[in-house]
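Reply to dn_fold:

You asked what the input looked like. This is it:
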Amino acid sequence: MGQAQDRRAFALEIVETLAGAGHDAVWAGGCVRDLLLGEDHVPEDFDIATDAVPERVREVFGRDRTHAVGASFGVVLVRGQGQQPPIEVATFRTEGAYGDGRHPDSVEFATRRDDARRRDFTINGMFMDPRTGEVFDDVGGRQDLERRVVRAIGDPEARIAEDKLRMLRAIRFTASLGFTLDPATADAIAVHAGEIPVVSAERIADEWRRMLGHSSRAVAVRLAIETGLLATVFPEIPGGSCSEAVSRLERLPGTAAAMVGLSVLLIDVDDPVAVCERLKLANRETNEVSWLVRSRGELAAAKTQRRSKLFPVLAHPSRDGLLDLVDAIEQPAEAPSPDVAWCRQLLETVSDEMLDPPPLVTGDDLKAGGLSPGPLFKTLLSSIRDAQLDREVCDRDEALALVHEIRNRHQDDE
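and this is what came back:
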């Protein structure tokens, strides 16, 4: 049984256990949407909604298998066997006002129908009994799935005003599903776009990771431009380059990673690192974006470059992302970048060890020869490495001979 099937079986087990204990329990939200969309949309996870209050959920499954991560909101995690990640079980509820624009000030346990109406979009507001396949739809979700529309439940202004993150979620769902954004929902996003900063930087960044890491990234950015969200989240992007950013993103392969998409989006920004830090990206992500943007010119005239200049670039862990990025920002019409094309051909003929071979001489070798770390030390290591990549020295003896030559030359200059 695969991981997705294991997950589904565990989610079914939870529903059956709650039902056996006398409770109404159903699959909820996104997993129902994906199941109704068909085999091309395998649910990433399953959420369960029930009329059992949190304490009762813990009684049914045992306290050793449960953890009340949000008991005041009716949320309990139920653990499975082995390394199986827990599944969230939430009590049907209604919600009070959202004072901070992100979280409800209060909740009350309610009916399944009430719970559906407090959710974000109609396509995410359905429930399913996995035992029978029966779908409970009190918000028009099935109809909007058929129409391929992302629409807020009830009053779009109210839904967006409650939780500002819903603006980015609406764009992500519309783009990734290939749907149309309901005009009234789009208008509500445009009205509230300037309020997105009330959401934490981490949550905003996570939505953009998911959008920019998906093949529909250009559609998502276009929607963000049209609703005013791009200008609010990324004020550093020059307004005049927005349409070009969409075109560049369209030229990225569908499999391009999120940080490659972000680098393309930020290619005209003066300080992309500052943007990454403001969004509180992980250090490795910030470093990747910094390297990609900084290295975009390193492939110029690749065919005539010395190996000592080109090979370190092609040996970098983000090399493939750089090739995709350069192709996207430099393509004349639909023709691939000649530099990228040449590099791709080269990579078919050289191994990783050829690109980044073990050094012929190390710092320990220099120390053994009586040198202390310093400017000359660094110069020697760099020069020997370049000579090795350029095939001017082929073994340790030749490398050490070059060390003596450079040292003597340096002493003569002094």
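The chain has four domains: 1-147, 148-294, 295-356, 357-413.
Hope that clears it up.
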